[in-house]
Batch of 2 targets.
Target 1
Amino acid sequence: MTLPLRIAPSILASDFSKLGQEVADVVEAGADWVHLDVMDGHFVPNISFGPDVIKSLRRYTDAFFDCHLMIAPVDPYLEAFAKAGCDGITVHAEAGPHLHRSLQTIRSLGKKVGVTLNPATPVSVLEDVLDDVDLILVMSVNPGFGGQKLIPSALDKISRIKSLIGDRPIEIEVDGGITAETIGAARKAGANVFVAGSAVYKGANKNAYRDNISALLKAAEA
Ligand SMILES: O=C(CO)[C@@H](O)[C@H](O)COP(=O)(O)O
Ligand SMILES: [Fe+2]
């Protein structure tokens, strides 16, 4: 099944001193989704922001909030992120601690359900949860930081996931090192949602963001 191509800028690369404006600007510049990287300093070696910040960002846009939770254990916090205004909630396969329970909880909260695979997480973890997810997030870098280089083995992993899901309407999202140079290969492999932090937020103003998103779209469609 062919799902729409979506650009999901990660606000991790934005200017945190004016986060609300940065979210509004990137949506005005053509972002389809807003990617929110939540880090706990435990599951990943960095700390970003939590549900209160997401709640305050909700005032700046109605765009889809794609919440990538890099926290463990994640289950105790799912409801807080749902209430904060996340539209999609994505948990790492290892973070639950029980993946199936986490996915069922997100479903029961009425949100789009996502599972994330780290570079070393095998595709086989998806086999028994395929009918419980709306989105599979493939990390193409080790999670924790923006501005890293895409790990090439992620492309083959995306192709294998694409075959595995068959005609299920599951979004395949790729996250890490997506630039105008790498987006085409990720699209060919089968991804339809592209997270891009540093490639979108370079230039630090709305016009630059618009140009950066256009360049990504052009490269993805080439
Ligand atoms: O989840 C993560 C990092 O853990 C990402 O969403 C990055 O923030 C993407 O940043 P770039 O690689 O596009 O700069
Ligand atoms: Fe992310």
Target 2
Amino acid sequence: MSRAIRACAAGAAASRRGLASVEAMGAAKGAPPAAGRWAGRGRGGPGPMEDGARVQWVFLGCPGVGKGTYAGRLSRLLGVPHIATGDLVRDELASSGPLSKQLSEIVNHGKLVSDEIIINLLSKRLEEGGEKGELGFILDGFPRTIRQAEILEGVTDIDLVINLKLREEALLAKCIGRRKCSQCGGNFNVASIDIEGENGGPRMCMPPLLPPPQCESKLITRADDTEECEPVEDFYRARGKLLEFNLPGGIPESWPKLLQALNIEEDPDNNRSAAA
Ligand SMILES: Nc1ncnc2c1ncn2[C@@H]1O[C@H](COP(=O)(O)OP(=O)(O)O)[C@@H](O)[C@H]1O
């Protein structure tokens, strides 16, 4: 058990319980490293782990880059859960459970919730998934800090960390264009990007991600994000787990290239994946 976990485990009893269940996700810790781990999956197989292959991935990227979009698509394709800690926080807030008042103050001020709370929420989610027979995960929004990365490393092997990157001008426009529905919490983006290609490359076009009609009148801008992404990137880069992926444009251009970079082939017959 890592020092970070011990430090955490010294916290509140509830935190200890949460950490113990995060440890449940570490059953496969010590398995060989990641490259091509999912490559042995049978073409079109019904589940992700039929031959012992795992997907234990993390998505990193600046706010607005599209982590949730690509993590969600991959999770559907690979048949593993997409676990976004922001969603876990929002669900907890909506539940009016014991944490919700404390959480709403933190989240409304655009701050990160404590490692203990986020780990408890993640543990609970993984435990529920485990009971339903879920295997593997694609994490989005976690880890956000080096301490969270250390805790995760202490309990399980992460196979791959996909760091989504976008040209600065496009990223800026995407950040400014972020909107959230004040009622359902859904995330949207009103930015419509159409900029010259770099070094004679193709234009970069990214259409807006508009809300459904029922959310249109409830859109609010989102709190400025002042988080520092680099330390977590560096943490995984130093461990040889970071795959940097420069988004070439919107989903139609980026999705096939991302699959290519991950050595995944979409199976047109049944919309499941297979190794390229
Ligand atoms: N790993 C985490 N560590 C701490 N707080 C988190 C974490 N993930 C989510 N949160 C909390 O939940 C809120 C919503 O998360 P998310 O949707 O990922 O962020 P954003 O709304 O900035 O895209 C964050 O502002 C933060 O308060």
